[in-house]
Amino acid sequence: MIRKRGYSMRGEKVAVRGDFQRKPRISVLALSFVSCCKDFVYSARGRVNQYPGSNSVWILDGASIHRHPEIIKLPAKCRRGPYFLPAYCPFFNPIEFLFGFVKKAFMRH
């Protein structure tokens, strides 16, 4: 892939170095998310815990790992329903700002 735009001093040619191929994206959190959710749901069975209580709900955004069939079934087994946030509403999910900051820091280094 050849870059069409770049930055350089005025009057000089743009120096383009490197291999600019888009690589597949990797989600590190998705590796253990399903097992962590199972541990969270099944930890309340057989003993008294404050969370998850009878009035607890799961609020999830539209990430593909959150829509996994196993994740959707887990709260239903404990008589809790998952609630999904509307699409493109990061202001309902403040952790997205932190994820964006961390993502930019990784891309810089």
Got a strand count? Answer: 2
Mean pLDDT across residues: 71
- Biggest sheet features: 2 strands, parallel
Percent of sequence in beta strands: 5-15%
Ends apart, CA distance between termini: 22 Å
What are the segments in which pLDDT stays under 50 over at least 5 consecutive residues?
none
Tell me roughly what share of residues is in helical segments. Answer: 25-40%
Order of helices and strands: HEHEH
Structural class: mainly alpha
Q: How many helical stretches?
A: 3
Order of strands in the sheet with the most strands? 1-2
Q: Secondary-structure blueprint of this entry?
A:
Blueprint: H1 30-42, E1 58-60, H2 69-77, E2 82-84, H3 95-108
Parallel strand pairs: 1-2
Helix pairs in contact: 1-2
Please supply descriptive tags for the structure shown above.
RNaseH_sf, single chain, 2 strands, Tc1-like_DDE_dom, mainly alpha, 3 helices, about 110 residues, two-stranded parallel sheet
What does this structure look like?
By secondary structure, the chain is mainly alpha-helical. The mean pLDDT is 71. The chain has a two-stranded parallel sheet with strand order 1-2. 33% of the residues lie in helices and 6% in strands. Helix 1 packs parallel to helix 2. It has a domain of 53 residues. Helix 2 links the parallel strand 1 and strand 2. The protein is built from three helices and two strands. The longest helix is centred in the C-terminal third of the chain and has 14 residues.
Write a brief caption for the model.
Pfam families: DDE_3 (PF13358). This protein is mainly alpha-helical.
